[in-house]
Structure formats: structure tokens, C-alpha cells
Amino acid sequence: MAHSIVMPALEMAQETGKLISWRKKEGDAVAKGEPLMDVETDKAVVEIESPADGILAGVKANEGDVILVGQTIAWIVAPGENLPTESESPSAATGRKMDSQGSSVSSTSSTSSPSSTSSSNVRVSPKARRLAREHNIDLSAVRGTGSEGEILADDVLALVNASGSPANSTARAGAQARPPAAGPASAATETMSSIARLMAERTAQSWTSVPHFFVVREVDASALLATREKLATKTDKTQAVRITHTDFLVALVARVLMKHPRVNAAWSGEGIRINSDVNIGIARAVEDGVVAAVIHGASAKNVAEIAALRSDLTDRARAGKLRPADITGATFTISNLGMYNVDAFTAIIVAPQAAILAVGRLADRVVPVDGKAAIRPMMTLTLSADHRVIDGVRAALFLNDLADAMCEPEKWL
Q1: Pick from 2, 229, 240, 248: most CB atoms within 10 A?
Q2: What does R_g of the chain's alpha carbons equal in angstroms?
């Protein structure tokens, strides 16, 4: 039986994916679970495995193509098996291939019906329609520059950039006709990769749609440092991976989240979704932005296990070999900029998660201890919370328990 290879949805609200490379060429034998292709999402380049044993056949997508999620791009067939006909393909009636700017191009000659505005039959790419909805733009005011007047994502963005935030679509249409003011002669525009562009869009969407509030707590990290040194001494000969402060934070945060399920929850259209698992995303810088690699089931793992997983994820993120499971399913995210000498910062929530923890550097500070001035290694934690899911009291109680856990880590680990 033939198995279709489709552009997978690897992220929330993902509409397209970019095919970076084929690991196999048409006619090659492939085994189930063997790397088949690399796909770029808004967060990372992800390695996609073959869903079955067989022969790669019917390849429809080239490297560099940006393709609609769900579009069939190839098949895995048994030796001697014929390819399914177009009518048998689950995406034949709706599949639309995307160009490198996220604009739609019909992948079949007769079955794809064009998108249209309320006042005409002009086609609109899915990305253009989403951008118009996000910026409250009337598509009838947009002049399409695509094939047969199709409205592309760049057409909507050009109108947004030209008009700023006018009160109505008439003003937008007028602004579109006016050339933008000339900038400084020395100014240059940096071309963004699709990962960076999509990350910017998702970040802006979270910041403007999620009601953020922030709770800050300074924590004495003396006990955390002592426990880390103690554990490092015990595992020095058996643990190949160095245990970091982040590894301890992941372990402690995961255990504290078990006591505070609302902080481990998510906002959905139906209300608040309480997650049964604690999966911690660790924000990590890569060439084109930031990727949150996920430690699944972190509350059930010890620090050494977390360190090994974190190290492996970091290496594969840098090499562009992350798998879909590596970047999906996070229920809470930690962003640590302490290694860059940042004292404190606030982070933007990764929707639909309810919170994200921003971690500053460890620094010696003078603090009161038993009524006297003392020097202690202090760390600033900032919790960004979604007020639809978490109120101020819940956020404060979570940070209180996390601070207690950091002061007595051996009781929690």
C-alpha cells in the first residue's frame, strides 16, 4: 500500500513549510524511520523520517520550495507498485503549492478553487489572508501583484508598511498609492530568512494578543551551586556531559510545576487546558533566531538525564538535525541569558503556553542575612504570565515555591 509524504504541521498555526533537502532521491529504497527530508519551520530545520518501508516515488517538490501544510509531495510505494492517481490523493482537491514568499500556486490544473475577497474573485494566498486578518486590512483595498492579480503576502505587507496603522481601509488604500518616504542614504535592509520572518510574526502575535504580566523574584543560589558541585563530584567519572545551572533549573521548575498545574496549562478557544505532562522547552540561540528544544517528561527525570538530553538537543539544533518531537509539545519554557551577563529581562510567552521563565546571571550581591550584610550569589527570575490563565497570586506562589526549591534543591530532586 502506498504511503503519502505530506508537508507536516510541526508548529501551532503553521501554514507552510520549506523543503530544505531530500535525503533520498526518487527511486531510492528507504526504511521506516530513516531520515527522508529536512523541513524548515519558523523555529528550526527539522529532520523528517520515512513513515514506511518502500521506494521513494512521485516526487513533486524541489529543494527550496515552500509548500502548504498537508500537500502531498511524494509517495512511498512497494517495489513494482503503481502511484495512486490524482483522484486518490487526499490532497489532490485542495493542495496548493507555495512559492518562496509564501504565495500560492495551483498544484493541480483544475481542482483548486481560488480564494477570493468579498467583492471579487481575485485569488488570495493563505499567508496574505492571515496577514490581512492580523492587521485588520480589507483585502478589497489591496492591489495584487501575483499571477492573474493574485494577492500575495508581500502585497499586504507593503500596504501595512506604507500606511502604518490608519483608522480605516480607505486611508490604507490611499496610503498604498503614495510612495514611502525616502530613508537615509546609508540605510540598508537586511534580508530575513523564512525562520526569522516567521519567528518575528509569531512573537508579535503573542505580544499583541496575550495579556502579559510579570512577576520578579531574586533568589539566593548558594545552595544550588553547592548541590551542583556535589553532584558534579559524584558523577565526574560516569557523566560525560557537564551539568549546568540550566539543567538544575529544568529539574526544579518541572517539579514545582507539578504542584502548580495552572502555570503548566495553556489557553485555548474553549478555555484553559490543563496539561497532564510537564514538558520543558529550553530556548536556545541558533543561526537564524531562537529554537525551544523540549525535554519531555522533565518532572520524572533526574538532573543527569536532563543534562544528557539537553546536550544532545543543543548539538542537533546547531547542526540543523532536530526532529519534529524535539520542538513540539512544550508546556512551559525557560529562557536563560545569564551566560551573556544579563542581570534580568522579561520574555514573551510562547503561545498557547501560559508562562515563560526568564533567568538572569548569577552575580555576587550584598544582601541582608540574619540582620547583617553578606555577599551571596544571587539570581533574578522573571515570570511572564498569561492573565487569562494565571492570576497574580498564582504566579507569586509559583515563584515562592521555586525560590524555596532553589534554596533546598536536595529536598526536591
Answers
A1: 248
A2: 25
Amino acid at 120: S
| b/e sequence 199-218, b meaning 16+ C-beta within 10 Å | bebbbeebeeebebeebebe
Q: Which strands make up the sheet holding 72-77, listed edge to edge?
A: 3-6, 72-77, 54-57, 29-30
Average pLDDT over residues 345-358: 95
**Of 18, 61, 56, the residue nearest 38 (C-alpha):** 18
Query: Can you tell me which residue has the cell 498537508?
Result: 70
Extended beta strands in 299-348, E state: 332-336
92 within 8 A of 117, measured Cβ to Cβ: no
What are 49's three cell numbers?
523520517
Q: Let me know the angle formed at the C-alpha of 200 by 194 and 205, rounded to the nearest 5 degrees.
A: 125
Looking at per-residue confidence, does 82 or 107 come out higher? 82
CB 396 within 8 A of CB 381: no
Higher pLDDT, 313 or 153: 313
- State if pTM tops 0.70: no
For residue 117, is pLDDT > 70? Answer: no
- Output 192 or 332, whichever has higher pLDDT: 332
Alpha carbon distance 318, 339 (integer Å): 17
pLDDT of residue 182: 52
Residues 6+ apart with CB under 8 A from 387: 211, 212, 213
Residue 349 CB neighbours (<10 A): 22
Phi, psi for 156 (deg, rounded to 5): -70, -45
Q: pLDDT tens-digit profile of 197-223?
A: 767 878 888 899 999 999 999 999 999
Q: Which domains does the chain have, with CATH numbers?
A: 3-106 (2.40.50.100), 126-177 (4.10.320), 211-412 (3.30.559.10)
Paired with 200 in beta bridges are none
Question: Cβ contacts of residue 305 below 8 Å, gap of 6+?
Answer: none
Residues serving a catalytic function are 387, 391
